[in-house]
Amino acid sequence: MAESAIIVQDVCFGWAGGETVLKSCSLTVPKGEFWMLLGTNGSGKSTLLRLLAGLLRPQSGEIKIAQPAGFVFQNPDHQLVMPTVGADVAFGLVEENLPLLQVRQRVEEALAAVNLWALQRRPIYALSGGQKQRVAIAGAIARRCEVLLLDEPTALLDPDSQLDLVAQVRRLVNSQGITALWVTHRLDELDYCDGAFLLERGFVVDRGDPKRLKQRLMQVQEII
Ligand SMILES: Nc1ncnc2c1ncn2[C@@H]1O[C@H](COP(=O)(O)OP(=O)(O)OP(=O)(O)O)[C@@H](O)[C@H]1O
Ligand SMILES: [Mg+2]
């Protein structure tokens, strides 16, 4: 069996005072693949991603995830903190205490990987939504992340930038061997991934071929 970058085994989690959100939830993402996580509103997708990012702890069960892991939020304005593109990507490297030259190299490489090399000095406020998401992804690449966790990164983008972003992540997974887990509601994005999970009632009810899952969910949408 291929090596796994993410293993979730029988994870249970409930918010304080709330219902149990994840009930014996299990999934595995093979290393170097691009998988998507689907499910209705409130099914626990964001909660699961927060558990994977280590922002929350499971009440029971086990999570194993290759490190370092990077998180990309739905709204990039909640994530980008520095005034310019280059400074923002460099900011994520502060903890590593690298020599300045190496920081510069990593920032340039990461921005080149998301086709933003020319915008290094651009103020963040002067970027489009899709460009902001690519800066957030560059931050993870600069930190040499093994895994990218993306929570509806295209939710605030127009349809063209949406498909640009998903195609970009597809290329990064192919070229850099990164593993990506991408939460979405948009079925057209399934065309870009290697596999998908369907989360319902706190556990994974279906998994595998994205084409088959897309068919299944399109039929459900038609009925509704
Ligand atoms: N910070 C919180 N405190 C308490 N309950 C929460 C919190 N965040 C989410 N929940 C609850 O946990 C459940 C799962 O929420 P979650 O955000 O994980 O769903 P989701 O699948 O990401 O939904 P969506 O598709 O709307 O983003 C919901 O019932 C929600 O109300
Ligand atoms: Mg969510």
From TrEMBL:
Domain of life (superkingdom): Bacteria
InterPro entries: AAA+_ATPase, ABC_transporter-like_ATP-bd, ABC_transporter-like_CS, ABC_transpr_CbiO/EcfA_su, Molybdenum_import_ModC, P-loop_NTPase
GO molecular function: ATP binding; ATP hydrolysis activity; transmembrane transporter activity
GO cellular component, one term: membrane
Domain ABC transporter per the UniProt entry, residue ranges: 6-223
Assigned keywords, A-Z: ATP-binding, Nucleotide-binding, Transport
Pfam families tied to this protein: ABC_tran
Entries under CDD domains matching the protein: ABC_cobalt_CbiO_domain1
UniProt protein name: ABC transporter ATP-binding protein
